Amino acid sequence: MKIYHIINSLRLGGAERLVADLCAELSETESDEIHLLLLDDIDTSLKKEVEANKRIKLDVVSSKSLYDIRLPFLMNKALANADIIHLHLFPTIYWGVFYRLLFFFRKQKIILTEHSTENNRRTKWYLKKIEKFIYSRLDFIICISESTKKNLIKHLGVDFKVKMEVINNGINLNRFYNSKAYSRIKYNLSEKDFVLIQVASFRTAKDQPTLIRSLALLPSNVKAIFVGDGPELETCKELVKNKELESRVLFLGNQFNVAELVKMSDVVVVSSRYEGFGIVAVEGMACNKPVVASDVPGLSEVVEHYGVLFNKGKEEYLAELINKLHTNDTFYKQISDKCLIRSKDFSIKEIANQYRKIYSKL
């Protein structure tokens, strides 16, 4: 089969990381031809990684923007021979459905992976009918968590007919198991420092300010590393300045070798306001690090009973949990060991097999 995954770009993000790893794993099967089509030609380290894998056929649609109305027509040439078209993220889902309506005679199967429990479109009442129309034109929907499926059904209505199935996200476990920690000296950190790390784009949903505010409540040797970029970065830098935490916070921007940075750190923090799944939490677990995460749907499915959860936006509670990990070696080892065990549930090899079963049923 010729399987085409389509996504906006390969920026830093959980959905993008999943697509790259999934395409790499799916391409191991000679019977399937795996293509990855990007709608935005942004040069990133993740894109370079995909380009280096010659088993994946990478293509880019040349358009003015992600909202270029010509996109369905520009996609046409690349998708003409596709058997299955697999969509990820907005607005790719809309363009994929518009492509189907324009080229309906091709009888191709179109499926979607739903990556989030919430999005801005669901808050606009006037988009409700449009959303139901778009989603109803899909052949199958994969949700990355039970919470993602539950919220999507709530959004579309219980009478929605398209088949859905939950397949959790997965990661290349060996990439994290075998990675080596960077030297702390490079980042002006000492072995006495207790280092927190958060890997996320700087968007409101990721809520870096809660971690920054919690840092102000912790001892001075507790430091924080932020990996990522985005529209809220400058706001977070200003908050760090206002809290006089400049000497305790590192903003590293987008980084390719995240595993090495996580291995260098002591605790992974995921303080999101909402998450479809929380692939960063799994990456932290695979590095044998304790994960502290906000207790929100999707993310809690991954972390509960293994890492530790706190009420979203509550910096006092977050600081309390971090301090317990910092001062109680037994508790730290107990949580980190459980997290490592949990990571084994999310092997990209097993996840890819579940996707293959879906493809074979279409």
From TrEMBL:
<dbReference type="GO" id="GO:0016757">
    <property type="term" value="F:glycosyltransferase activity"/>
</dbReference>
<feature type="transmembrane region" description="Helical">
    <location>
        <begin position="84"/>
        <end position="105"/>
    </location>
</feature>
<feature type="domain" description="Glycosyl transferase family 1">
    <location>
        <begin position="184"/>
        <end position="336"/>
    </location>
</feature>
<dbReference type="InterPro" id="IPR001296">
    <property type="entry name" value="Glyco_trans_1"/>
</dbReference>
<dbReference type="Pfam" id="PF00534">
    <property type="entry name" value="Glycos_transf_1"/>
</dbReference>
<keyword id="KW-1133">Transmembrane helix</keyword>
<keyword id="KW-0812">Transmembrane</keyword>
<protein>
    <submittedName>
        <fullName>Glycosyltransferase</fullName>
    </submittedName>
</protein>
<dbReference type="InterPro" id="IPR028098">
    <property type="entry name" value="Glyco_trans_4-like_N"/>
</dbReference>
<feature type="domain" description="Glycosyltransferase subfamily 4-like N-terminal">
    <location>
        <begin position="13"/>
        <end position="175"/>
    </location>
</feature>
<keyword id="KW-0808">Transferase</keyword>
<dbReference type="Pfam" id="PF13439">
    <property type="entry name" value="Glyco_transf_4"/>
</dbReference>
<keyword id="KW-0472">Membrane</keyword>
<dbReference type="GO" id="GO:0009103">
    <property type="term" value="P:lipopolysaccharide biosynthetic process"/>
</dbReference>
